[in-house]
Design a protein that fits this description.
The protein is α+β, with helices and mostly antiparallel strands. Helix content is about 15%, strand content about 30%. The chain contains 3 helices and 18 strands. The chain has a 4-stranded antiparallel β-sheet, with no helix packed on it. Strand 4 and strand 5 form a beta hairpin. The protein is elongated. It starts with a strand and ends with a helix. The mean pLDDT is about 90.
Length: about 300
């Protein structure tokens, strides 16, 4: 899912068995490394093929006739360890595997549904596709997809822009590369624990601060896919830029936790750009009289200023 590792099947020389699973890594210059054999315990003296690495980047599903199984080709899975080796493969068992050949497993992003090919149910019709509910013990790590599109005044603004995802509790940072032509971006990340919020931020020298706050509650109800559109804009004197997700309750200028988290990132941005001077404006809706709204707008701007 991170675009940096490619798994494939080959019967090239120096393998362990007939067909083995191999992998290559993407290098800094965009080229691929020399292929390396995945080795034991995944590969055997038999044949291993149809590798599918789940979007969690840790759970590998594959087909083998070399491991102990129920029939010809059975479907197995193995988990990556912290030192980049693999745990012993586990057979998915009956009724998924049978005495016939079963292969080509694909697992949904949320890990709840498996899809595979089999010729066991209707022998005269050849191969058919089937789906099943993945048992809990066979599921990958819980992940979510954050995707969006970068808007800009022109295509040049999108060049050399990175998107940063930060877990606001653990401070763990994940970076996304933006497609240079379309401005689209997507990243699969581990699903945060309850009460762990995320903030997605544009990172580009000379660009205005732009962020998107993602609450743990939004993640819970998102179905595993969160949209996070952002804007990249060149800093210009006198131009206004919106600070997203700084919201107030009706007739209030108290900052909530979400707003403070966004401002915390804005503070980091100001520290990284010490020559920058910013004018902070507050706004209200059109409910109420003009004078009260003006006072409320000023108080909201001052709340942000005082926190900074």
């Amino acid at each position: 899912a991170d675009g940096n590792t490619l798994y494939f099947t080959s019967n090239r020389d120096s393998g362990i068995g007939g067909l083995d699973i191999w992998y290559v890594k993407r290098l800094e210059d965009g080229m691929w490394s020399r292929p390396e054999n995945l080795g034991a315990p995944v590969n055997t003296s038999g044949n291993e093929k149809t590798p599918f690495i789940h979007s969690d980047s840790h759970t590998l599903y594959f087909t083998s006739d070399g491991h102990t199984g129920l029939g010809g080709y059975d479907i197995f899975f193995a988990k990556a360890t912290s030192d980049s080796s693999w745990n012993n493969p586990v057979n998915l068992g009956s009724p998924i595997n049978t005495e016939e050949d079963d292969l080509g497993l694909f697992v949904s992003l949320d890990g709840k549904t498996g899809y595979f090919a089999s010729n066991k149910f209707k022998m005269d019709s050849g191969w058919d596709l089937y789906q099943f509910d993945m048992p809990e013990s066979y599921r990958p790590e819980k992940v979510m997809l954050i995707s969006g599109s970068l808007s800009a005044d022109n295509a040049e603004e999108k060049q050399n822009t990175e998107i940063e995802i930060k877990n606001l509790r653990t401070k763990e940072i994940t970076k996304i590369k933006v497609d240079q032509e379309t401005g689209n971006y997507a990243k699969v990340v581990s699903t945060p624990r309850p009460h762990e919020d995320l903030i997605v931020t544009v990172k580009k020298p000379g660009a205005a601060f732009s962020s998107r706050y993602i609450s743990s509650n939004e993640i819970k109800t998102s179905g595993g896919v969160v949209k996070a559109p952002l804007e990249v804009a060149k800093l210009e004197v006198g131009r206004e830029y919106k600070l997203n997700d700084i919201n107030f309750a009706t007739n209030s200028y108290d900052l909530d936790d979400a707003s403070r988290s966004v401002i915390d990132e804005f503070i980091i941005y100001l520290q990284e750009n010490p020559k920058l001077k910013a004018d902070i404006q507050g706004h209200t809706d059109d409910v109420g009289d003009d004078q009260s709204n003006m006072t409320l707008s000023k108080n909201r701007a001052e709340a942000v200023y005082n926190y900074v």
